[in-house]
């Protein structure tokens, strides 16, 4: 029996792309900083001139899948992280944006074979979103950890 698991350290020169939505950037900028803090504490170079990390900004969560697909297809990254915040109180088309972002992101991962982390907060209020982006905990940190685990796990699977 084989057991396959991802690790969180000693990933070597792992290359990571983060795609961040500007919509609700009060929240998404905090998710990004939590995410980068996690990556940096696990040995990823997050400096401005890093060759391990690139960040792309998109207008809103709806645009996350297209840019994630482009970056995943480039062959340059072992994992792509998407960060967004869709707040029900602010939009009648909450369900449309969330459905497109979630379906799109899952499709990119399956189509390209590159793991894509779904880091889109979906909340009823701005307060709830802020609570998950640093006021209470910062889910950006968890998304960073999940990215490291998936990059490492994919390498550990047979045929990689
Ligand atoms: N995009 C978000 O990321 N969060 C939202 O809450 C949101 N609202 O409220 O509408 C939102 N809309 C913009 C959307 O993602 C696209 O950028 C836009 O429709 C252009 O395609």
Describe the structure.
This protein has 160 residues and is of the alpha/beta class. The protein has a single domain (16-152), classed as 3-Layer(aba) Sandwich (Rossmann fold), CATH 3.40.50.960. Helix content is 44%, strand content 18%. It contains 5 helices and 4 strands, in the order βαβαβαβαα. It has helices at 25-41, 64-73, 94-112, 126-131, 139-156; strands spanning 16-21, 53-58, 79-87, 116-123. The chain has a 4-stranded parallel β-sheet, sandwiched between helices. The radius of gyration is 15 Å and the shape is globular. The model has no long low-confidence stretch (mean pLDDT 95). Bound molecules: 5-nitro-6-ribityl-amino-2,4(1H,3H)-pyrimidinedione (INI).
Extract low-pLDDT stretches: none
| Overall body shape | globular
Q: Cα-atom Rg, whole angstroms?
A: 15 Å
Number of domains: 1
Structural class: alpha/beta
CATH topology: Rossmann fold
């Amino acid at each position: 029996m084989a057991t396959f698991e991802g690790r969180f350290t000693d990933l070597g020169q792992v290359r990571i792309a983060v795609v961040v939505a500007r919509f609700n950037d009060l929240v998404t900028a905090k998710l990004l900083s939590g995410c980068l803090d996690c990556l940096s504490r696990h040995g990823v170079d997050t400096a401005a001139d890093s060759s391990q990390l690139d960040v792309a900004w998109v207008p809103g969560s709806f645009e996350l899948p297209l840019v994630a697909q482009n970056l995943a297809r480039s062959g340059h990254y072992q994992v792509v992280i998407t960060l967004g915040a869709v707040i029900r109180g602010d939009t009648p088309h909450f369900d449309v944006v969330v459905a497109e972002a979630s379906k799109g992101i899952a499709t990119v991962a399956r189509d390209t074979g590159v793991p894509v982390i779904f880091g889109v907060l979906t909340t009823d209020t701005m307060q709830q979103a802020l609570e998950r982006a640093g006021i209470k905990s910062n889910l950006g940190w968890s998304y960073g950890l999940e990215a490291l685990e998936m990059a490492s796990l994919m390498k550990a699977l047979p045929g990689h």
